[in-house]
């Protein structure tokens, strides 16, 4: 079938379905040769539903009503319009996005497709170029350790941000975030707070999520799908009820984006966050357990094969935990710094550093927030 979008969708005037399909097609990459098919169903306009078929390129095809595919994604028209309009800023973890969509079948295909719709702003692209030049001038690819600062002043923190140099901050007292936290204590204190939204039909309170984690600890499973099947909140919005205990520890609350919660249990050999970089300076507060972060300077971009389609963060195709140097040969030259973050410690990570995160024990909890400036 033809995948000329003009032959499939009316593209005159405003047509969110055409715009959404065009985003998918132009943002698609497939260096690993994934194959499969995803039916994108629009409940209000089932006759405009279509199939996205994976090969060397992404082919968009009309869809017959009963045609079977590997994956079914149902997206309301209002959500599709928002994605087609806000592709530079949308976050799939936003309950107003993911909470309206339903998924069936191969979730890896759905996850791969979703990432094709994002695009960076010109500001983000320029920032990464500027940071890459800074890291190259300072020789950060040759760093062998991350400095620790005890009880730094706000001026010292600003100086580290300006220098683009990662730093572990210690001595954060008094702070309830460095208290003796446990799953039971979290469930008791924040039991009814919603901590994870995975689809239009899947929402979990803290108490429900803790029960899932405890069940996983008793009977762990190996197959995990980022964003779907994983006993981990993966940066979900920190519930408002938790802000007082785990909110920003420097500057004012208004200086930061809303905090994100990283709570769960995953095997120590699987990264809790795959290799990526952020366009804002991040603060990662460790609350329970330990985390290891492997950091790569921004001037190593060409060695790590970053995605061309991204917005709030840029993932990489190269996976250090299962390196395929045949497919990604330049990655063999990349150098990383590994740091361990303990409970009560805060990692200051200036914008642009590529990083991958591992939980060293379980259960594990961190809270992150990004500086707006």
From TrEMBL:
Source superkingdom: Bacteria
JmjC domain boundaries: 227-373
Name of the protein: JmjC domain-containing protein
Native species: Leucothrix pacifica
Upper classification of the organism: Bacteria, Pseudomonadati, Pseudomonadota, Gammaproteobacteria, Thiotrichales
InterPro entries for the chain: Cupin_8 (IPR041667), JmjC_dom (IPR003347)
């Amino acid at each position: 079938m033809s995948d000329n979008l003009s032959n499939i969708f009316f593209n005159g005037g405003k047509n969110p379905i055409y715009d959404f399909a065009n985003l998918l097609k132009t943002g698609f990459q497939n260096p690993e040769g994934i194959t499969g098919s995803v039916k994108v169903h629009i409940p209000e306009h089932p006759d405009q539903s279509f199939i996205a078929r994976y090969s060397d390129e992404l082919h968009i095809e009309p869809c017959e009503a009963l045609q079977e595919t590997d994956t079914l994604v149902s997206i309301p028209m209002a959500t599709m319009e928002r994605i087609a309009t806000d592709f530079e800023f949308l976050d799939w973890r936003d309950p107003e996005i993911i909470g309206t969509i339903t998924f069936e079948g191969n979730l890896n295909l759905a996850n791969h497709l979703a990432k094709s719709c994002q695009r960076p702003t010109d500001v983000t692209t320029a920032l990464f170029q500027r940071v890459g030049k800074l890291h190259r001038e300072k020789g950060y690819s040759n760093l062998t350790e991350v400095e620790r600062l005890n009880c730094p002043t706000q001026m010292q923190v600003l100086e580290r941000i300006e220098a683009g140099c990662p730093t572990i901050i210690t001595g954060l007292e008094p702070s309830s975030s460095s208290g003796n936290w446990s799953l039971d204590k979290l469930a008791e204190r924040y039991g009814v707070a919603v901590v994870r939204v995975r689809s239009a039909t899947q929402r979990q309170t803290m108490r429900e999520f803790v029960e899932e984690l405890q069940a996983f600890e008793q009977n762990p499973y190996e197959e995990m799908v980022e964003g779907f099947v994983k006993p981990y909140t993966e940066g979900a919005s920190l519930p408002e009820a938790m802000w007082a205990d785990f909110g920003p520890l420097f500057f004012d609350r208004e200086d930061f984006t809303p905090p994100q919660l990283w709570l769960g249990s995953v095997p120590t050999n699987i990264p809790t966050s795959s290799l990526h970089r952020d366009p804002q300076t991040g603060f990662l507060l460790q609350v329970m357990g330990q985390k290891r972060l492997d950091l790569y300077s921004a001037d190593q971009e060409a060695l790590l094969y970053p995605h061309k389609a991204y917005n709030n963060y840029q993932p990489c195709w190269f996976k250090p935990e299962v390196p395929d140097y045949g497919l990604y040969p330049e990655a063999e030259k990349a150098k990383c710094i590994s740091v361990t973050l303990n409970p009560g410690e805060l990692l200051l990570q200036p914008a642009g550093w590529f990083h991958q995160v591992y939980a060293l024990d379980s259960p594990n909890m961190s809270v992150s927030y990004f500086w707006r400036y």
